[in-house]
Amino acid sequence: MRFETTVQRPVEASGVGLHSGVPVRIRILPAPPSTGIVFLRTDLDRFPVPASWEHVARVSYATSLMRQGVLISTTEHLLSVFYSMGVDNAYVEIDNLEVPILDGSGLPFVQLIQSAGLKVHRRRRRYLRIRRPVSVEGGGKRITILPSDRFLLTCDIYFEHPLVGRQSLEMEVTPERYASGIAPARTFGFSWELDQMRDMGLIRGATLENAVCFDRTSVLNPEGLRFPDECCRHKALDLIGDLALIGKPLLGHVIAERAGHAMHVALVAKIMSDPTLYEVLSFDQLASRVAHALVC
Fold first, then answer.
1. Which of 4, 88, 224, 296 could form a disulfide with 121 if both were Cys (CB 3.0 to 4.6 A apart)?
2. Residue from 115, 53, 77 nearest 265 by CA
3. In this structure, are residues 62 and 74 in contact, taking their beta carbons and an 8 Å threshold?
4. Contact partners, residue 203, CB within 8 Å, separation at least 6
């Protein structure tokens, strides 16, 4: 994509926060070039919180942003959709502290963006290309980005459950592949963890209508799974949402092995704190480089 984009017209959705359980309404609005994604807390005089790695506040069971004490929680699904569907700039009005979970996947947000349409700005899009390998690892988990002229994703997970086990996904992420193969995958959990999570003040808004829940041997949702590897696909959705905090489209091969929000965000911070790890290129510069490589 050569030029930056925004949404063509406003769209909105409402629901509850997955962890807080509070009712919340969001409205996605067009924004000028180079704005990025900016949340506006309408219940707090439209206080702005940019979707940037510099404002990450918490990364336990969701990725939250905070600026001057103002919180926006569970941002990863919406940011994943903006990033993968090619939305560079947008204002997100939100009247409470947590993005609505809707059906637990990115699909309702994809449908919102498709309904809004895309408007192309005249400003050239800038890409962040990884120049050399960079990794974060610990506790048997690891996430790495290797140099590439495309956005490639390899995601591996493992959970001791007969319907999950070890799952792996490899994909070049495009809007079309994301919309059909990643966005519909829902957030998930296990029945034996629910009480502990609620005691921690989490999943107060969770139901079988917005999350997949497994007991020891089966899935409790009457409709079953949307994909046999829905858990891995949802982890890929979360990963993309956290990578979106870079603020520019990423060119690199991301390899995540049992990684989670904290590790995703640690990798983003590591990249952004070391300018030798990346270069920023326009679409035309990238196309010229790829064409030169093919000739050579």
1. 4
2. 53
3. yes
4. 18, 19, 61, 189, 194, 197, 211
User: pLDDT of 264-296, one tens digit each?
Assistant: 999 999 999 999 999 999 988 888 877 766 665
Q: What are phi and psi of 22, to 5 degrees?
A: -80, 145
| 5: Cα within 13 Å, side-chain hemisphere | 17
Calculate what percentage of the chain has a pLDDT beyond 90.
Answer: 94
Q: Residue 136 in contact with residue 129, Cβ under 8 Å?
A: no
Q: Minimal CA–CA distance to 161: which of 230, 211, 101? A: 230
Average pLDDT over residues 108-126: 97
Active site residue 234: no
User: Among the options 55, 77, 253, 261, which is catalytic?
Assistant: 261
Length of the chain equals 296
Angle between helices 230-243 and 76-84 (to 10 degrees): 80
Residue 291, pLDDT score: 73
**Distant-in-sequence, close-in-space partners of 65: CB < 8 Å, separation ≥ 6:** 39, 49, 50, 51, 52, 55, 56, 57, 71, 72, 73, 75
Give the SS3 label for residue 238.
Answer: helix
Name the average pLDDT for the chain: 96
Q: What is the pTM of this model?
A: 0.95
Mean pLDDT computed over 183-191 = 98
pLDDT at residue 183 greater than cutoff 80 = yes
Element spanning 11, H or E: strand 11-16
d(CA 18, CA 203): 5
Sole residue written with tokens 């390998």: 133
Task: Return the SS3 of 54.
Answer: helix
